Amino acid sequence: MADKLIIFDTTLRDGEQSPGASMTKDEKIRIAKQLERLRVDVIEAGFAASSPGDFEAIKAIAGVIKDSTVCSLSRANEKDIARAAEALAPASRKRIHTFIATSPLHMEKKLRMTPEQVMEQAKAAVRFARGFTDDVEFSPEDGSRSDIDFLCRVLEAVIKEGATTINFADTVGYGVPELYGNMLKTLRERIPNSDKAIWSVHCHNDLGMAVANSLAGVKIGGARQVECTINGLGERAGNTALEEIVMAVKTRKDYFNLDLGIDTTQIVAASKLVSQITGFAVQPNKSVVGANAFAHASGIHQDGVLKARDTYEIMRAEDVGWTANKIVLGKLSGRNAFKQRLEELGLQLNSEAEVNAAFNRFKELADRKSEIFDEDIIAVVADEQQSGDKEYYRFVSLSQHSETGERPVSRVVFSIDGHESNCEAQGNGPVDATVNAIESKVASGCELLLFSVNAITTGTQSQGEVTMRLSKGGRIVNGIGADPDIVVASAKAYLSALNKLHSKVEKLNPQL
Ligand code: KIV
Ligand code: ZN
Questions:
Q1: In a domain, 288, yes or no
Q2: Rounded to 5 degrees, what angle do the CA atoms 294, 297, 300 make?
């Protein structure tokens, strides 16, 4: 019988450490629910001690997720671990993931601790964590640059203390597949109690080898857990991409001979959701989830695929959740049809009031856009989920004038805490004029880090989805807006980002 490969998703923790990818609690819950639909085995929901915002998000996720284990990261100290345990209390299945650096460089320069102190702290942390749950993971940070003899001693000791998963971290993406896989193999061979733990790989993509290193850790090293993120999101060059690991193991079952619990048809939805919430676009030629991943442009390829699909396709687009743009609803569609489509798409709104509000948005859109695709419905729901009654700034209307040789002018009406406000400004272009108009009233003092526009579906009648990333006082937030008029979408995105900056409960991007 084939072994199972555990998929541990850390989009909400390591992925979120990517500057600019910080998410609100509600956004994290939406992603966690999609990860549960994807049937990942473990969701690392955050790092409880890093901020009150992270703590609350983990607690909320622990309360709603039933099928996946929910995990919190913690440094190897009692305060962090107790905080993780408190956040995880509502979870049906919980894991505490504790870590400490073991490489000479990190111990000496970062921790300023001797190897023996690190050893004692690692043991004490695992012992303490076992008091809260019998599912405890230990990571030697910068493991791949650690001394193998020391690593063997530490890992043997933490397994003795009750660590059930050992996660061999290539923290700085320094590994190369053969060496990384063999180092893990050596650890497992030399550590006498290595069979008492599940071995895991955790790789960063600094040299573009995170997926290759992880797979070498599985094949050569015998790892049975892979830590990964949707779209490979993560600090610097990112983490191992979940979709690539899953599809490699599934497509090459002949080679890996491993079973997965993942529902691969949910991959594209997860990718789109993470990209939409973080504003990190997926490159078109990205494996599995890029827009061109299954597109055949060359005549020879098209001809081959038409004759026999497997001439040029090793995976089926529909197996990872790609669907042809389908016109699903129109302006005559009623509330029941809308609600049913939400259910079919796995989109959950929290109350009937939210369904009604989303339905009204859909009706407004259908009045302006004759064909409504699934992607439009997803955008409508996302709009509703990120706004609602909690909006301090709310878009009302906009008129805009552009003419060759003239400076564009934008007039924006929006409400501030329920009071309507009119403003007007010029700019280099229509979006610049719109942002200038809003700023003439708000004077937020924030810096615009990113402005990106993306067509949600194909064709010029597509809605434009705009991301605005703003930074102020060390906080970075993303605002998203969708509309067939990209200037309106930009105004909505800008106001949505201002709403996040205005909300006091959000947190700083947690950096380790
Ligand atoms: O990259 C790393 O070392 C980590 C650990 C906390 C597992 O993210
Ligand atoms: Zn990491």
A1: no
A2: 105
